[in-house]
User: What shape does this take?
Amino acid sequence: MPVRVPQRRDHSKVVSQLFSTTLVGVEAHFVRVEVDLASGLPGFHVVGLPDAAVGESVHRVRSALRSVGHPLPPRRVTVNLAPGDLRKEGPRFDLAIALGILASSQVVAPELITDSVVLGELSLDGGLRPVRGILNSAVAMRERGLRRLFLPAENLDEVDWLEGMELWPASSLEEVLALLLQGQPGRERRARRTDPVVPGPDLSQVLGQESGKKALQVAAAGGHHLLWVGPPGCGKTMLSRCLPGLLPDLDEQQSLEVLTVASALGLPCDGIRAPFSEPHPQISSPALLGSHRPGELSRAHQGVLFLDEVTEFARDALEGLRTALETGWVEVGRVRTRVRYPARFQLVAACNPCPCGYAGDSKRSCLCSDSRRVQYLNRLSGPIRDRMDMQVALVRPGLRESWAQGGSISTGQARERVLAARQLQRMRGYLNRELPREHFEQPELVRSEAWDFLFDYGARKHLSMRAVEKLLRVSQTLADLEDCPRIGLGHVAEAVHYRCLDQQGCG
Assistant: This one.
């Protein structure tokens, strides 16, 4: 019977462990980076379900370590990214792998990086490049009780305002080593710095279109989804771009949500004003709804999504809006997982009234038949149209009259009215767009003649219950703008006026 010879253990071997993160949607998931230097044929292996960018870190880390005077030891290097069933994406693990190798080589003490989160992409000369999702990682760290974060200096502005964080920013691997060897403490928390807000067009720059300006204020005050229908050049796009300037500033929770989406996308954001997203009509469905990264719907989270020429968007992309409009999120299926992205936005869309664009125009004649015009508008499906609170028809204003009249109201003046109406809604506890049916069942809130008019109109136009509720919500916003405690016939009649597709024979 063979005798088993006990294996000799190498007690001098050190397996270093530290944390990094990977993004799944907009959520940061922790990854334990384990580095083992073993005897045997020299090699460098990364395991733990890495993608191509993570696998290429072998070459970046090897060159960066050589540039700081600590080349890879002639041993077999194994890097494990745990958990092994979670897909690891991007070059964000470069710095963590490099520090793990240096800790295993005892160049730096392993206890200096234990319970630390390390993020950063290495260049071949040892420089540190910024990565996406730094803020997402910092928020996850606070929830888990971790404080020390090593990060590229270019990402510092994203997180240096967070409380309870110990930040170690650096511009190169050499600087990180100097910080560790000197034991320099992390940076103190600072107030959040914001870049100057790039202003959009002012409402006073829109010539004419007084009815459009009023409708825009109603949409801003109640957070209502809005569809413009009008010929080319009537001001649909310019009016829509004025909307973010009318909205109130983001509160603390909304700001954090917007900043985490921007961080996951690697985009700058001030976190104060409502974001504005304007995708091209030829955008693909994954780019609009989201795939491995947040899409344009999430980019517009807590802000405005503007779909110009909405009838030119792909049908499946538009149908994907339905869940987001109702729930405030969009769910994307990926291999082995499903990712949920935040997508609570105010939708503003614009389209022409017909393929040539001049149906109903007093200056140019339309060449489209009635059936072709209805077919064109029906590219926007019934369920999507039913979810639009306001459908406003615009006409081209006269050039001479509009130029002489100029802008009648500025964004600042209109914003004051919007903020006053929003204050009433805060006291009520609901944004008007989200008012429940029970709100309108209060006695004497809606006048009897307003109920009669609403039910008669709904019956004649075969409106759904959802459409009737939306009419009531827009009526409530009109009452709020007038600081009126009850919804009257005039409010409901004006809300009906903001449903032009009911008159177009679409369905």
Notes: The longest helix spans residues 411-428.
